[in-house]
User: Which sequence fits this backbone?
């Protein structure tokens, strides 16, 4: 069963037709190659004008949570730039098509978030193309499970931090001169920030860093009328998980240990980003919105 974000439904029964199965993808993974396909809200998300005239940059906007967010932002009336790795062009072009179909401008920005010059450049390109920037969503992320610390390479540790933490810093810093009062930064954390898995040492550490960075920056920027908030997903069915985020054999049971007994879909995350991006959340600052199927958080 799938639904839009308004229909009265039993959350334990939702998306029961989308089975998470054991599978593996090389590289960053594609939504196009996900079996079964995740729900990005492409057939269901209904906008209600909450982001009319806004200009957004969403990293990792080609697939998963970022793609669902990009679709929702466009249907709420925002122009949306998406950042992604060059090998994800197929997914990115589909999302560009959906943004355009919503009547909004789309900007495709392939490149590597580990490169500070790229981070600065995509902010400049978004401002140039749209005439400004009001919403920055730091959502691109790297997650590779490693069972033993001895096998966690210096290179992976560095890459995970560069992608998940440094890029957020570089992008926030580059965006700041363009963010007028009313603008928002939304960072994607994880349940891993509070409840770290033994095989995700580097990843979980970056997610705790994202939380601390966001709370500190929220205090610094609140006085300027710029709100910083966080969305912390639980287990969500995306290519990240099938591309080494989890051990392949763990995917069949993915999300079943949550109180709702299932994995979340990207479409269920997008409304949290819309809320934090829009003026509906005008008094919400430095907050973490946990969208995780009921896993306890501090
Ligand atoms: P996803 O694979 O669909 O999205 C992650 C994106 O990150 C990729 O599409 C890719 O474009 C981008 N990315 C990774 N490395 C990059 C690099 N070096 N340069 C440029 N782009 C890069 O998976 P997702 O699950 O939607 O992930 C989105 C965010 O959600 C991530 O920050 C992830 O940590 C977080 N998250 C996911 C889950 C989950 O269960 N899926 C849970 C908690 C948090
Ligand atoms: Mg992707």
Assistant:
């Amino acid at each position: 069963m799938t639904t839009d974000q308004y229909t009265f439904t039993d959350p334990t029964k939702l998306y029961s037709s989308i089975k998470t199965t054991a599978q593996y993808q090389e590289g960053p993974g594609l939504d196009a190659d996900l079996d079964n396909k995740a729900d990005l809200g492409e057939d269901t998300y209904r906008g209600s004008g909450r982001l009319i005239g806004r200009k957004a940059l969403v990293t990792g906007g080609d697939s998963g949570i970022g793609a669902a967010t990009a679709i929702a932002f466009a249907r709420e009336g925002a122009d949306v730039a998406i950042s992604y790795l060059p090998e994800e062009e197929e997914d990115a072009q589909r999302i560009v098509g959906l943004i355009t179909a919503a009547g909004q401008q789309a900007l495709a920005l392939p490149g590597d978030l580990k490169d500070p010059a790229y981070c600065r450049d995509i902010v400049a390109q978004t401002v140039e193309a749209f005439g400004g920037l009001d919403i920055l969503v730091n959502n691109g992320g790297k997650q590779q499970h490693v069972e033993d610390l001895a096998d966690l390479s210096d290179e992976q540790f560095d890459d995970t931090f560069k992608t998940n933490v440094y890029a957020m810093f570089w992008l926030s810093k580059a965006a700041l001169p363009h963010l007028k009062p009313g603008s928002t930064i939304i960072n994607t954390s994880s349940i891993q920030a509070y409840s770290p898995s033994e095989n995700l040492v580097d990843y979980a550490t970056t997610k705790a860093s994202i939380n601390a960075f966001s709370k500190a920056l929220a205090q610094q920027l609140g006085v300027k009328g710029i709100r910083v908030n966080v969305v912390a997903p639980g287990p969500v069915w995306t290519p990240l998980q099938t591309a080494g985020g989890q051990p392949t054999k763990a995917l069949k049971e993915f999300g079943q240990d949550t109180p709702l007994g299932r994995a979340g879909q990207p479409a269920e995350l997008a409304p949290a980003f819309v809320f934090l991006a829009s003026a509906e959340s005008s008094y919400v600052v430095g907050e973490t919105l946990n969208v995780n199927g009921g896993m306890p958080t501090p």
Remarks:
- The beta strands are 55-59, 79-84, 106-110, 135-138, 184-188, 227-233, 288-291.
- The domain at 35-41+51-291 is CATH 3.40.50.720 (Rossmann fold).
